[in-house]
Amino acid sequence: MSDLYLIYKNMTRKPLRLFLTCFAIFIAFLIYGAVTTLKSALDAGIDLAADNRLVVVNKINFTQPLPIAYAQKVAAVEGVEHVTYANWFGGYYQEARNQIVAMAVEPESLLQVYEREIVLPLEQRAAWLGNRQGLIAGKNLAQRLGWKVGDRVPVSSNIFSHKEGGHTWDFVVEGIFTGSDPQHDTNSMYFHYKYFMETQSFGGDWIGWITLTTVDPAQNQRIADEIDNGFANSQAETDTSTEAAFSKAFIEQIGNIGLIIFGVVFMAFFTILILVGNTMALAVRERTGEIAVLKTLGFAAPRIFKMVLTESLLIALIGGLAGLGAAWLIVEGAKATMAQFLPNLVLDSGIALQALAFMLLLGLVTGLLPALNALRLNIVTAFNRG
Amino acid sequence: MSQDLLFQLNGVSKSFVKGKEEISIFSDLNLTIERGDFVAIMGPSGSGKTTLLNMLGGVDQPSGGEVSFDGARVDNLSESALTRWRAHNIGFIFQFYNLMPMLNAARNVELPLLLTKLSKAQRRKNVETALALVGLSDRAKHMPSEMSGGQQQRVAIARAIVSDPKLLLCDEPTGDLDRTTADEILEMLQLLNRDHGKTIVMVTHDPAAAKYANRTLHLDKGKFVQRELVA
Ligand SMILES: Nc1ncnc2c1ncn2[C@@H]1O[C@H](COP(=O)(O)OP(=O)(O)O)[C@@H](O)[C@H]1O
Ligand SMILES: [Mg+2]
């Protein structure tokens, strides 16, 4: 027999209570694991953004278009390296629920601006540039839809209509790209802006946004200001920001996810903290007489303090690790279906370690007061009370 | 005779502060207990018997005076030193047995051995010996809730002697037991005193129990008083 055996016996003496406590902690860390993974997947888009890339959008809202002539003017600003532009297509494949991240782009400049994110074999690159009906698809996307180079594929839009009727365009898969970093998203596809403009029914020559690279990130602010000042008081004013800031704004458009996540996690933790803390306090109060006996027998107060604290730590770890494990299973299960929106959905070791730290904190906080009570318990008064 | 002196109380006083009042339980109490003695302490309820026992066991400290054990002062030890001292020298037996409800008999008996450096095998041997001594070898795996009061008190006695302390302190050890069971327990204490050399101090309000002791002290109003023995 050891102290650990005593702790174990104390812990398991009321199995239903132990189960309920562990279950509450389980739920808390299930939420924590799933939600932080989701948040970090959203943040990854921001982290991966290059720091020398700026995005120019319409000042009113990034869903409002810009005149195509702006691309030329932006290219003339000093310190701008490459300029490309794109249009959001709102694509899907065969069925509306098979959403695709699809964009109409200017191919040559796209490959310059995104040279690290879009890596194509040379012959595929040449083939795509040479075929106005060609598209390039990311490796993940191609895998998901079963596309191979040379395939003719119909891609539909939930925004635009084809001049000849319907919402569907025919493309030829001319290339399948990867990223230079495995973290890079390969769930998107790109096709020729010119082909799109000639075949869509709205007419006009406008673009969704402009992306440019600068020669030096230190000049970003000056270049952004110069661009926005240049279009001040024109028909479409612009808002230029770094790609990271743009991604963040995009996420905030969906909803202030950070705040919601913080709220949910905080509420869950606070509830659990009170619940578990109360249970621990109760459990130790019930054992007042036994703790007094242990002290009488010669168990030192710090040793009893440690035993109570270990018990609450064990409970937090059992519930917490189970919850984290369940969160991992859920994330692994959701990975495939979420891959197109959240390519970085992984419960990685960073999140796991953070959760572990919170488990230890939970165990310490809930165990501290009862442990201190046990530490300070006076034998004489404890027996008088009992 | 001084090497036979185990406990000595010199002018010991004890008082509690209750609200604004200071309640004195005893003042100037003197007592010597020799090695191998079996002392019964009797007295009316509230006369301070438990308080005296607590001070002997280092669970409570006197407000004044000296307590010496084996020739060394113990009244001025720190709490942690006192805790260690208790673990080495004192075995406690309570009125309500105070076994750990979630541990079986053998593990309850083993509890004080967690405070020693004995090996696992040595610990098991000591537990077996102690349980055999109280006649409960066949109940080692039983839980306290599965045993009668008398059996539980025997387990408690085994726990008190398992680490071989010099002194056993018993607070109303038979207060919760019927006559026959009480006599069994008292005979067991007598055996531990006679054949195993344990010094015993036992608080009781039962004159029949006191008869098992070598001598009886009567505590009343904070003093030891002389009383004719009642037949
Ligand atoms: N911690 C304490 N605080 C205040 N009074 C106490 C405390 N412990 C004991 N007493 C009082 O001291 C007196 C003696 O108590 P106790 O030693 O338990 O008596 P006995 O065991 O002889 O019945 C009682 O009046 C009791 O109320
Ligand atoms: Mg008493």
TrEMBL record, chain A:
State the membrane topology: Multi-pass membrane protein
Instruction: Using the record's annotation, list all stretches that form the ABC3 transporter permease C-terminal domain.
Output: 264-379
Query: Where in the numbering of this chain does the MacB-like periplasmic core domain appear?
Result: 23-228
Where is it mainly found? Answer: membrane
Q: Is Transmembrane helix among the key words of this record?
A: yes
Which residues span the membrane? 257-277, 313-331, 351-375
Identify the keywords attached in UniProt to this record, alphabetized. Answer: Cell membrane, Membrane, Transmembrane, Transmembrane helix
In terms of superkingdom, the source organism counts as Bacteria
Subcellular location as annotated: Cell membrane
Protein name according to UniProt: ABC transporter permease
From TrEMBL, chain B:
Keyword Ribosomal protein attributed:
no
What this protein is called in its record is: ABC transporter ATP-binding protein
Q: A Pfam family matched by this chain, by name? A: ABC_tran
SUPFAM superfamilies linked to this entry: P-loop containing nucleoside triphosphate hydrolases
User: Mind telling me which InterPro entries this protein's record contains?
Assistant: AAA+_ATPase, ABC_transporter-like_ATP-bd, ABC_transporter-like_CS, ABC_transpr_LolD-like, MacB-like_ATP-bd, P-loop_NTPase
What UniProt keywords are attached to this protein's entry?
A: ATP-binding, Nucleotide-binding, Transport
Cited SMART domains: AAA (SM00382)
Where do the ABC transporter domain residues begin and end? Answer: 7-229
What GO MF terms are annotated? Answer: ATP binding
